């Protein structure tokens, strides 16, 4: 005789438990963790490289990629501690992978930047224990991306529009982009940057520093 | 394409429960998946068939109930279902909006067959 058993628990419960544990650990240490999510080629690594030049906090980086240590090498060149996760086909990072990476990073840091696998869909579905998700989108990708990928833009604490120095050269419907961000997430911080030219970087650093200070004030 | 990750986590849970509770076979698995979770049901069913092969879950049917998206305005109290307006109330323009349904990713229930020893005990 078949029997029906009610379960009602999250499919990702085991990984979510790890994420909550990581978050508690980071909260105790007063460390801010950011989950940077954007398409391949949206400029995540370049934004990081630029952010790591003399910021007012101590940083570390976790690099998520399907293959290669190319991003690891780029971040290493800045002198900041960095760990590479290769997912070998996996389209996103999960908390169990971040947990192992954190063990290889020094504890005396203020901000951990996690660069997720380049993808606007799957990374938005997995909580890593981060304080904030940051959506990164370049003008070259087009202004229609927020509504096409609502889950990420809805959850992000900040939306960073990158490569704004390319605006004169690519068709980018700026009004549509920001109006749609508004409909999905009117509370998100909005930034426009060109990491190559240095435009908007200080506002981005100020935002991260503000998050760090707010976290430490709450914790103290 | 994160369905395989979800199925791997699901299989871990099912096989652990199967061992602990003494189920001889799992014949049906029901999930509740919110509209916002970006899950493709067909991909999920395909991955499930692959991952369950050779286990006591092999051959089980995977049923996916979709939970529609519902947003609620905390100011005017109205509800709507529109993924294009997740953060802004289309009625009063307030930004105090909660997504009250559509983020679920739940293993709701399973239909199982018990080991004969377990039947004796129950």
What does this entry look like structurally?
The complex is a heterodimer of chains A (220) and B (122). Chain A is α/β, with parallel strands linked by helices and 220 residues long. Chain A has one domain (1-219): 3-Layer(aba) Sandwich (Rossmann fold). Chain A contains 8 helices and 8 strands. Chain A has a 7-stranded parallel beta sheet, with helices on both faces. In chain A, β7 (158-162), α7 (174-184) and β8 form a beta-alpha-beta unit. Chain B is an alpha+beta fold. In chain B, 30% of the residues lie in helices and 33% in strands. Chain B has 3 helices and 6 strands. Chain B has helices at residues 3-21, 41-52, 116-121, and strands spanning 23-34, 61-67, 70-73, 79-80, 97-101, 105-114. In chain B, the strands form 2 sheets. A 3-stranded mixed beta sheet of chain B has the order 2-1-6. In chain B, strands 4-3-5 form a 3-stranded antiparallel beta sheet, with no helix packed on it. In chain B, α2 links the parallel β1 and β2. Chain B starts with a helix and ends with a helix. The model of chain B has no long low-confidence stretch (mean pLDDT 93). At the A-B interface, β1, α1, α6 and α7 of A face α1, β1 and β6 of B.
Question: What oligomerization state is this entry in?
Answer: heterodimer
How many helices of chain B in DSSP terms?
3
Physical arrangement of strands within the biggest beta sheet of chain A? 4-3-5-2-6-7-8
Give the integer mean of the pLDDT values of chain A. Answer: 96
Global Rg of chain A? 18 Å
H/E element order of chain A: EHEHEHEHEEHHEHEH
Q: How many domains of chain A?
A: 1
Extract low-pLDDT stretches of chain A. Answer: none
* Largest beta-sheet details of chain A: 7 strands, parallel
Into which percentage range does the β-strand content of chain A fall?
A: 15-25%
Level of helix content of chain A?
A: 25-40%
Our measurement of the CA-to-CA distance between the termini of chain A, rounded to an integer number of angstroms, reads 58 Å
* CATH superfamily descriptor of chain A: P-loop containing nucleotide triphosphate hydrolases
Number of strands of chain B: 6
**Shape designation of chain A:** globular
> Residue-averaged pLDDT of chain B, rounded?
93
Helix and strand composition category of chain B: alpha+beta
> Would you count the extended β strands of chain A for me?
8
Please identify, by name, the CATH architecture of chain A: 3-Layer(aba) Sandwich
